[in-house]
Write a structure and sequence with these properties.
Layout (H helix, E strand, L loop, with lengths): L14 E5 L1 H4 L10 H6 L1 H7 L3 E4 L3 E2 L11 E5 L6 H13 L3 E6 L9 H9 L11 E2 L22 E5 L5 E6 L14 H16 L4 E4 L30 H13 L7 E4 L6 H6 L8 E2 L2 H5 L4 H15 L7 E3 L8 H4 L20 H17 L3 E5 L20 H5 L47 H4 L6 H16 L7 E2 L6 E6 L3 E6 L5 E2 L4 E6 L4 E3 L3 E4 L3 E7 L5
Parallel strand pairs: 1-2, 1-13, 2-5, 5-9, 9-10, 10-11, 12-13
Antiparallel strand pairs: 3-4, 6-8, 7-8, 14-15, 15-16, 16-21, 17-20, 18-21, 19-20
Helix pairs in contact: 6-7, 12-15
């Protein structure tokens, strides 16, 4: 009897849908997305064909940074619902065949977290302050920050406190907003607290954790200056070796639970070999592929990033991942419609002009390319509707703290976080349950009705219909294939590769049509193909096609 090959763990090939909770669906009509809204839309997510849902933070938070400033890691913020609702949601998602991954924010807490409030109240030299990075300032009177580190959100990474008696106190570290003090991972209380948080959510059935700023928890001893010309692969506040010991201890905890639980790292690092160290068999299971997200719409560049990704993951046995957009980046429909199609977190070019129709055509092709590649794929909510970036939110409605921290030079990330359109009527397009008591927390464009779920569902040629078809084919034909590919195209402007079982993916990035390979059956195309002669077809510019090789004589 022939033995069946062992089943591949789900997370190695999963299609994972990112739910930005505030903007997915509002179940109580207050203008903010919540668990009730997602629970009502679970059939939509099941039918879309994804395998898992990743939730951005749902914890108690003052929302200084959209929930990434956590005041209580063991409860749900009332704006989203209750812990009881979260537990019921996990069970309901599982009943629909969907895994649930929750965000974990271990680099920093909220300034409203009980630990930080206790640290402020306890005074200088107290044990409470040792859980964070409180340091005296430089200068004659301590008026200068302890080092030259800069916040990712702009300005100094240090804020000076005023003691209870009114005297100037020490400075505390915050690599993001001042409302997000960095935790001191050298302190045993911090290690023990987060191990207990893992157990808390694992016991409630979550299938994994997406780890925010996974590369940033450990800092170099003494917190040295970065200097004027730092080596980007050797910064004192990221990718410090001690971080790997944290994940090795976490992995031991995770592996005691059944059901193939998973860690996914947000790891923004400049070198593939740095990323690979986080994916060793006793650390994280997978990590986001930001090189792919940032890659321009260029065949040479795409092949290079795909090759580098596969090469970096192969030695550690980790699955590659592919992502086009998320809650921190420009939506790729807008990015692909620009003259410069690359993405740079340090220079987002938020107001650059974009040809939306060109961007949407390329986004359709990029979706099929991503879904054809070996490994796991992430879909940011609204990708399946081809939503563009909302580039002109009025200044007084911008919520992102980067806008204020940058003095208005960086308009922030709100443009990719605008609430989803569900129905074809006027705004809010079914986002909020009726009767609504408030407008959506961010304004929606007045021309989004044709992009709504209702307008696209079942419509031939719609992006949503394309995603349904692609995810179904991916699950039935590609999910269990080996995590390898072989390049086949000789044209510099074409991305074409084969996978096992006769599957071929071809993307034409040239300005002119290219002929379909002979002996191939079309499985799916991102756009209409062109007739070529009496019997043939060609692939137009910015179009992707999935093919099945037809064997001779069959």
């Amino acid at each position: 009897m022939t033995q069946r090959a062992p089943r591949t763990p789900w997370w190695r090939h999963a299609a994972i849908y990112q739910v930005y909770l505030r903007s997915f669906a509002d179940g109580n009509g207050d203008g903010v997305g919540d668990l009730a809204g997602v629970r009502a839309r679970l059939p939509y997510l099941r039918d879309l064909g994804v395998d898992a849902l990743w939730f951005t933070p749902w914890y108690v938070s003052p929302m200084a940074d959209g929930g990434y400033d956590v005041a209580d890691y063991r409860d749900i913020d009332p704006v989203f619902g209750t812990l009881t609702e979260a537990e019921a949601f996990i069970d309901e998602a599982h009943a629909h065949g969907l895994k649930v991954i929750v965000d974990l924010v271990p680099n920093h807490s909220s300034d409203q977290h009980p630990w930080f409030r206790a640290a402020l109240a306890a005074g200088g030299g107290s044990p409470e302050r040792e859980r964070f990075w409180f340091l005296p300032g430089r200068g004659e009177l301590g008026e200068l920050p302890p080092n030259d580190w800069q916040s990712y959100f702009g300005g100094s990474a240090w804020t000076r406190i005023t003691e209870a008696d009114g005297t100037p106190g020490p400075w505390y570290l915050h690599m993001f907003a001042p409302q997000q003090p960095d935790l001191n991972w050298e302190h045993p209380d911090v290690r023990a607290e987060f191990e207990d948080i893992l157990h808390f959510w694992l016991r409630r059935g979550v299938d994994g954790f997406r780890i925010d700023v996974a590369h940033g928890l450990a800092k170099k001893p003494g917190l040295p200056d970065t200097g004027t010309d730092p080596d980007p692969t050797d910064l004192p506040y990221q990718d410090v070796d001690d971080v790997h010991d944290i994940y090795r201890s976490w992995r031991k905890i995770l592996d005691t639970y059944d059901g193939e639980r998973v860690f996914v790292g947000e790891v923004w690092l400049p070198a593939p070999e740095q990323l690979a160290r986080y994916l060793r068999p006793d650390e994280l299971h997978s990590a986001f592929n930001f090189d792919y997200l940032c890659c321009p719409w260029d065949a040479r560049e795409l092949r290079g990033v795909i090759d580098a990704t596969l090469a970096a993951h192969q030695p550690v046995g980790a699955p590659p991942t592919w992502v086009l957009s998320n809650h921190d980046t420009i939506r790729h429909v807008t990015r692909y419609g620009r003259e410069n199609t690359a993405f740079d977190m340090g220079d987002k070019r938020l107001l650059d002009p974009s040809d939306t129709e060109l961007g949407r055509r390329r986004a359709r092709a990029a979706a099929l390319l991503s879904l054809a590649l070996p490994g796991a794929v992430y879909i940011y909510q609204g990708d399946e509707l081809a939503l563009p970036e909302v580039q002109h939110i009025p200044d007084d409605l911008i919520q992102d703290p980067t806008f204020v921290r940058s003095g208005g030079t960086d308009r922030g990330r709100d443009g990719c976080r605008v609430p989803l359109p569900w129905t074809e009527g006027p705004a809010p397009y079914g986002f909020s349950a009726q009767p609504a008591t408030a407008a959506p927390w961010l304004p929606q464009p007045t021309d989004w009705a044709p992009l709504s779920v209702a307008a696209q569902a079942g419509a031939p040629g719609s992006v949503l219909t394309l995603y349904h078809a692609a995810l179904a084919l991916r699950r039935s034909r590609l999910a269990e294939l080996p995590e390898t590919l072989a390049w086949t195209a000789e044209d510099d402007d074409v991305v074409c590769f084969d996978r096992a079982g006769g599957f071929r993916c071809l993307v034409n990035l040239s300005p002119t049509p290219v002929p379909l390979p002979e002996g191939s059956e079309v499985l799916l195309a991102s756009g209409p193909l062109k007739t070529r002669g009496a019997h043939g077809f060609s692939v137009p510019a910015d179009t992707c096609v999935w093919l099945q090789t037809v064997r001779s004589g069959t």
